[in-house]
Amino acid sequence: MKRLLFLLIPFAATAQFKPIEYVNPLMGTDSKMELSNGNTYPAIGLPWGMNLWTPQTNVMGDGWAYQYNADQLRGFKQTHQPSPWMNDYGQFAIMPGSGKVVFDQNERASWFSHKSEVSKPNYYSVYLADCDVTTEITPTERAAVFRFTFPKNDSSFIVIDALDRGSYVKVFPKERKIIGYTKRYSRGKLTNFKNYFVIYLDRDIAFYSVASDGKLIGKQEESASNHSGVVVGFKTKKGEQVQLKVASSFISQEQAEWNLQREVGAKDFNRIRTAAEEQWNKTLGKIEVSGGTEEQMRTFYSCLYRTLFFPNKLYEIDSSGKEVHWSPYNGKVLPGKMFGGTGFWDTFRALYPLLNLVYPEINKEMQEGLVNDYLEGGFLPEWSSPGFADIMIGNNSASIVSDAYIKGLRGYDIEKLYEALLHGANNEGPVNAVGREGVEYYNRLGYVPYDVKINENAARTLEYAYDDFAIYQLAKALERPQEEIDLYAKRCQNYRNLFDPSTGMMRGKNTDGAFQSPFNPFKWGDAFTEGNSWHYTWSVFHDVQGLIDLMGGKERFVTKLDSVFSLPPVYDDSYYGGMIHEIKEMQIANMGQYAHGNQPIQHMIYLYNYAGDCKKTQYWVREVLNRLYKPTPDGYCGDEDNGQTSAWYVFSALGFYPVCPATDEYILGAPLFKKAIIHLSQGKQVVLNAPQNSVQNKYISSVKMNSKDYSKLFLKHSELLRGAVLDFDMSPTPALDRKLDDGDFPYSFSREKRPAK
Questions:
Q1: Whole-model pTM?
Q2: Using CA atoms, how far apart are residues 318 and 325, in angstroms rounded to an integer?
Q3: Residue pLDDT, tens place only, 313-339
Q4: What is the dihedral of CA 364, 367, 369, 373, to 10 degrees?
Q5: HSE-CB for 661 with a 13 A CA cutoff
Q6: What is the CATH number of domain 19-184+194-285?
Q7: For residue 737, what pLDDT is reported?
Q8: For the chain, how big is the Rg over CA atoms in Å?
Q9: Which GO molecular function annotations are given, in alphabetical order (predicted)?
Q10: Are 672 and 622 within 8 A, CB to CB?
């Protein structure tokens, strides 16, 4: 009875816990094109907010906006950038100065030091040495408030840089107001794209000068050019503070004004900062961990922070309270929700499953947005930034849609989304990365051939097969016609067509059925995507038992898994004509062929469980948690990728991982903390207790669920949602000779009992 009462304690009882204090937004910022330690930037914003803000060290337009090893800042940029490889859209910058009035980004750049920099999710502050100005920023979803502390100077000023590729500004001196827009974007072909902004100052504008084509042209009130901007200035006393309020809209200037009025209004800097802190603590506090080291706590919450930005809201609330959005697909302003800025190739694996478990309400909104994506674009996006981006492979929207529904999300048009999945699975899209490139070959031959000039063909085949499984799962849940269910059940077995018994690995195959030759399992790219056969052979998320059987049984399967770590980090980069950063990140990690810095192999450690050798899962999970993540600027071992690599850490630190989204299961690893509490919707909790956990005690001796012995190597999502207490007995040595029944093993399609035809 006491345990039941504990499960029902409301989250408010732990409201004093402030996880925001553990977050380091600078984790992963010590990166460059040649080597990624995260490729992140310090994101100042709210969870899933439409806009983020970041200090900019590199030139405007450079995807590597903020690099930790830089020593100058050029501005503070409103950003929607999910990744440096995707670059940004709708960005503009604000920068204070004093003395000689300058607009050019290099002339206005100022030296700074991390010693005088404060970076938190809800607040950023830095001292700009060259102009003797301290800048502070605090955000809302579509707006922000700046506070500048100026020196004594007759010529203190603020630069508003609307950037190049088409922009506009207008200053209203008597109203202390600036409006404008930027047309800048990086991906796709956008129609009627503008990011409108409005800015208000809390003091009179004494002088101003607009910029046209990147040059100041004097006291005119507006400028429309390739590169427009404005400088507004005033006389200040030492320590005098000037507050700036800014909001934006993809819809109109009037909507930008409304966004500012609705989200900021008369509130001052401190009120916005406090509200943002409360929202972050509430969102991060959905998971409470304790009993780890300070470093582990900081790493956990820094990773959780990174999972809470993308996809970001593209919709806005109009003056009548209705949700509206500018459509990146047709350029129209339409009703309803819209999200953007994520690549499903990365995020189907762990980010979306994390949302479905911990933040289902926001993913319900995202599913509503996907309906609008399909209605307006004719396909579901696979990489949205903000519309269709032609990058990466797969048709993993099938996983995003199916996992949400199978995990219990409801209240949106799932029939329309299922229609979208069928359409995407059987057609090529408007760009190669949408729909399925090579679909005619895949549906006819059961694979995308190597010799038909479709790159990364083996990777496409493996991902299409998993995506067909996701469609199969959703088709069953929606009680679709049996013929349709059977079709996707058959197609999800297409991975078998690329398995080469002579090497025990996945391999490209030609149209005539012969395997591509010569075959080098260490060759990156070519038949695979940002990886090699050692990484992609394990991409049978839905039928690991089928893969075990192909390899000749559990013993051989485990030996093959072991080889990933025992092999040297050799590589063939000839397809790329040189080393790509993902290869270098694998090479320096000192884990053989295991390339955790990229997504294809991140689930592989958990596959030991399918062969009953769970001690190796427990060992290698702890190794990755301890060795490849730190709450520091070099804290990741590759691209963080829109929350995916962080979601791996969050799940793995809790003690389980979603190897196969679109099923009801998580595969057990071993918890990192002595205690964790997941605060679910409807007041339920999942409590994970491991009081003996330590550096030495990394193996599970036994597990109890709700006080009963638990022998399964997986957890069921549906059982966790009812509330659960898991007690782990941890040990320094593995539990040997553990007897496992057939029902203790995780789901595999080959083990599923299906109705006889």
A1: 0.96
A2: 9
A3: 999 999 999 999 999 999 999 999 999
A4: 180
A5: 27
A6: 2.70.98.10
A7: 67
A8: 26
A9: carbohydrate binding; peptide-N4-(N-acetyl-beta-glucosaminyl)asparagine amidase activity
A10: yes
